[in-house]
Amino acid sequence: MTNAPLALDLAFLDRVAQDEAFQTACLRYAHANGSSHAIAFAVLTAAGAFRTRLALQGAVHALRSYEFGNAAPGLARDVADTAEALLAMAPSTPCEKEHR
Predict the structure, then answer these.
(1) pLDDT tens-digit profile of 33-69?
(2) C-alpha distances out from residue 47 to 2, 41, 50, 87, Å
(3) Reduced to 3 states, what is the DSSP secondary structure of residue 2?
(4) Does the pTM of the predicted model rise above 0.85?
């Protein structure tokens, strides 16, 4: 593994930059009737940060359940499916590209 900073895939960057909510927030900001908070919210939304947080929260609940001896195969499947979908949308790192 390398200590190099994570590299963004251009496709991921383009998806975020072309997102309609992001573009609208930028236009509002440029015309002095928007805010940097609106742009930040639009970027986080376009990048999937809120979906990722919910998926991580689900994973924490599943892992805590397993920690206390509870079995929940349906929950495990749902969390794994959600994580796979989010990973498919996420930018890859240089390390991931080297191992493909």
Answers:
(1) 888 888 888 888 887 888 888 888 888 888 888 888 8
(2) 24, 10, 8, 12
(3) coil
(4) no
Say yes or no: 35 and 54 in one domain. Answer: no
Q: 67: which 2 tokens?
A: 């920690």
Question: Is residue 2 a part of any domain in this protein?
Answer: no
Question: Rounded to the nearest 10 degrees, how much is the dihedral formed by the CA atoms of 74, 80, 85, 91?
Answer: 160
> Has residue 1 been placed in a domain?
no
Q: By residue range, what is the domain housing residue 34?
A: 8-47
* Exposed / middle / buried, residue 96 (Cβ in 10 Å: 0-12, 13-18, 19+): middle
Tokens of 24: 């609208």
Measured CA angle at 55 (ends 71, 20), to 5 deg: 160
